[in-house]
Amino acid sequence: MRKFILLQFVLLALLSGTVVVEADIAGGIIKRSGLGFVDENGNQFVVQGANAYWLMYQAASPSTRKFVDALYSEAQTLKLNVIRTWAFNDGAADRALQTAPGVYDESVFQALDYAVSEAAKYNIRLVMSLVNNYESYGGRPQYVKWARLLGEVMPNDDSFYTNTLTRSWYRNHVKKVLNRVNTITGVTYKDDPTIFSWELINEPHCETDVSGDTLAIWVEEMAAYVKSIDKKHLLEIGLEGFYGASTPHKRWANPDNEGMGTDFIRQNQIVNIDYATVHSYPDLWIPDKSNDEKLSFLQVWVNLHIKDATELLNTPVIFCEFGKSNRASGYKPEMRQQFFWTMYNSIYSSMSNGGAGAGTLLWQLLPEGMESWDDGFGVFATDSSLVSIIDTQSSRMTKFRTSRSTKSRRLLL
After folding, report:
1. What tens digit of pLDDT does each residue of 199-214 get?
2. pTM for the full predicted model
3. Which of 11, 101, 113, 265 is 20 to 30 Å apart from 404, CA to CA?
């Protein structure tokens, strides 16, 4: 019946002069199930992926669109199944998606359409972030600048969370993106199985209110708004994992003993948030420490968050950004290899023991020709030793998923 309906749909599209291709990601939209994820067929889904925040930007120019294709090809070779990317570019001079509040460049939106449609071809899902905490690609600072131009009193960038106008602009952006009908596939984003989840904001901070209240109120409002439009897809906040006022006894684990106005426990308990996120950057957070000390920090940081997600939050946790910089003092390639093994082994161990560790997204996978985009954390296919580690993790995660899915189906029989 489904094939017949789809055939009718395609025939109507042909008659109207528009060819529409339905997204075909095996298993459909991913759902949360206990401390993990499953597809619509009940098969276990584990996250093994990377970041490529620049997909829309590169797809917006014919000369750089090739990098999108190359990224997906390399990700598929590495058996990666999720890529995290930006669904925003606010007020930028070059390839802005939102050129002014509520004003969108259709050609850039079509570039995002291309990034989504190509991901489906490679059976890769996307985490789509909706705004930045930082001024790169606009973010909160751009929203605040727009508001000041209209005479709004905005003492600082944290006003983004409380000002009526900026909150309405953000909601409008959410509505615009989630209701976007892909010009290539004809599938509305909120219905597209290519999208793994939405992310409210990349690495939110609110340093003027370290209690976490301001950010919690904003998350509660915006999470409810996202779900009012799209109840199908997963939703996460975009937190780095800093502990806050709700668990002061855990602040020792933060690299600076402050939570940046965020609160890993409290804010991930907000209704409509489907899974927790953590970022891991010892090279940036504790730059003066030795490599051994950074590695020890990573081990504690990862395992503590897995334990808390398992026992306190009862929710899956994904390590959505992690990496080892080749620009750190005394760097040697084996340091990055050791870093990746530490992360991957912790996740695999958690999964094997029924814990909340649900996957990782390395920062960042770059195809050949994008060397100028390397921030020190870039991973290239030419790094055979590291690629071998990623491939090994992908293979054992695939075996884990297959064995768990088979077991689940047997239990249902």
Report:
1. 999 999 999 999 999 9
2. 0.92
3. 265
Residues of the chain above pLDDT 90, percent: 88
Backbone angles phi, psi at 285, to 5 degrees: -85, -35
Residue 197 structure tokens: 């989840």
Asked whether the beta carbons of 133 and 139 are under 8 A apart, the reply is yes
Residue pointed to by tokens 């409380």? 162
CB within 8 Å of 93: residues ≥ 6 apart: none
Written in H, E and C, the secondary structure of 266-279 is: HHHCCCCCCCEEEE
Pairing of strands 276-280, 317-322: parallel
Which pLDDT value is given to residue 398? 83
Digit-coded pLDDT (tens) for 18-77: 333 344 588 999 999 999 999 999 999 999 999 999 999 999 999 999 999 999 999 999
- Tell me the three state secondary structure of residue 197: strand
44 preceded by cis ω (within 30°)? no
Which tokens belong to 222? Answer: 């915006």
The rounded distance, in Å, linking the Cα atoms of 132 and 46 is 26
198's tokens: 């939405």
Band (pLDDT 50/70/90 cuts) for residue 411 is very low
DSSP per residue over 32-69, as a string? Answer: EETTEEE-TTS-EE-EEEEE-TTHHHHHTSTTTTHHHH
Distance CA 24, CA 382 (A): 31
Provide the annotated active-site residues.
203, 321
Query: Taking the CA atoms of the chain, what radius of gyration do you get in angstroms?
Result: 21
User: Helix, strand or coil for residue 126?
Assistant: strand
CA distances from 58 to 64, 119, 361 (A): 5, 14, 20
Mean pLDDT of 334-341: 97
Question: Rounded CA gap, 132 and 200, in Å?
Answer: 9
How much is the pLDDT for 12?
37
Supply φ then ψ for residue 339, to 5 degrees: -60, -50
Please give the domain boundaries of the chain with CATH numbers for all domains.
29-412 (3.20.20.80)
Token look-up 């968050």 returns 305
Confidence of residue 399 (pLDDT cuts 50, 70, 90): confident
